[in-house]
Amino acid sequence: MITRILQIILIGFFFMFFSGCGGGESNGGGASGIVSKPGDVVSLTKTATYDEKTMAQILNDMQISSPKVFGIETFVLVYKTLDRFGNLINASGLLVIPLNLSSPTPLVSDQHGTIFTNEEAPSKNPLNASVILFSALRGYILAMPDYIGYGASGNMLHPYLIKEPSARSVIDMIKAVKNYCKSNNIPLSDKLFLSGYSEGGYVTMAALEKIQDSFSDEIKVTAAAPMAGPYDLKSTADVYLFSGMLSYSPFVAYLVYAYDEYYGWNRLRDIIAEPYADKLPSLFDKTKTSNEIFKELTNVTNELFRADFLASYFSDGEVELKRALIENSVVNWSPKMPLKLIHCDHDPIVPFFNSETAFENFLQNGAKDIELVTLKGDDHIECAGPSYMEAASFFDSFR
């Protein structure tokens, strides 16, 4: 029953505040007064308090039974990170802290899947599936970054499936959470877990690679579970563009739009056919839902993409795009932390070979403590539930 409920709520429908829950408190969140570097806390605003009795009732209404239920407090954490030009900016995310902690507690950084509206950002949805699974049922402290382009940075481009800014938004939130907990005597243990599904799987993998390469002295990852992410972007693009029908056009169009804007190519109309090219800026303005975007696009590959672009891509052309896809892929490194890749075998949105390629490459590169868990399923959304259950059990084994 728990798995089925999580499948449903992971689709993207979130709980709103219950009447009587506290909120609105704001403070500096442990900031030292001078906010000057990535990972510094700008502010922390409490959005709700759900005591143990309230959470137990919520879970009971969802037909979820558990021998132990934790009350929680939810916060919007605003912290400093870097934009694509290296400028210090504000970013945000959801922070969840179980009530009445008496012993050091692990931190889970969970990265969300693809969203299209700012209202879907984790900081706007304080009681989502990951909160229930990790905090209410297991007592973990939970951090969920909004990513650049949502929440406090909602006026900026979201660097969709671009490695460096994706990784930085996660790393800097982890640093900010650690800073806040240390300054406010919150018993955070030295155990850190990273998880994420779909885009979140990709972002998790990007963050893990960056942590290992550049932040291993200050961030120690206990274990990680990237799930169903498009880790091999070039091969995934090849499959999408070669097929006559796209599995879901908003994802593909979002990548093209984000890459064109991020790298300053100004080639949108060279890649996307009309009338769709003209629509993309307004479709990805953070106010349109996935269904609204889907209705304005087409899933026919040679209708969405220009014929001359497709011909060039499958010959010797589009070198810049191909290079960017290869550079932003996250399959060519060697994880040193325990890593469990989780993916459904017949995923129609993010092909299974992404996890298979990552796993095989990691082994060839010398990784030791890694595993590929293959689940049965042919629905990208419905596979999220059992994937998260697998990830949670994996993390529990390290407590």
Describe the structure.
The structure is a single chain. With 399 residues, the chain is an alpha/beta fold. It starts with a helix and ends with a helix. A ten-stranded mixed β-sheet has the order 1-2-3-4-6-5-7-8-9-10, with helices on both faces. The longest helix is centred in the middle third of the chain and has 21 residues, at 163-183. 49% of the residues are buried. It has 15 helices and ten strands.
Strand order of the largest sheet: 1-2-3-4-6-5-7-8-9-10
Order of helices and strands: HEEHEEEHEHEHEHHHHHHHHEHEH
DSSP E strands, number: 10
The CATH topology assignment of the largest domain is Rossmann fold
Radius of gyration, whole Å: 20 Å
CATH class label of the largest domain: Alpha Beta
Q: What is the number of domains?
A: 2
Biggest pleated sheet: 10 strands, mixed
What percentage of the residues does DSSP assign to strands (E)?
A: 15-25%
Estimate percent helicity.
25-40%
Mean pLDDT value: 92
CATH architecture descriptor text of the largest domain: 3-Layer(aba) Sandwich
Shape: globular
Question: What keywords describe this structure?
Answer:
399 residues, alpha/beta, Rossmann fold, 434 Repressor (Amino-terminal Domain), 10-stranded mixed sheet, 10 strands, globular
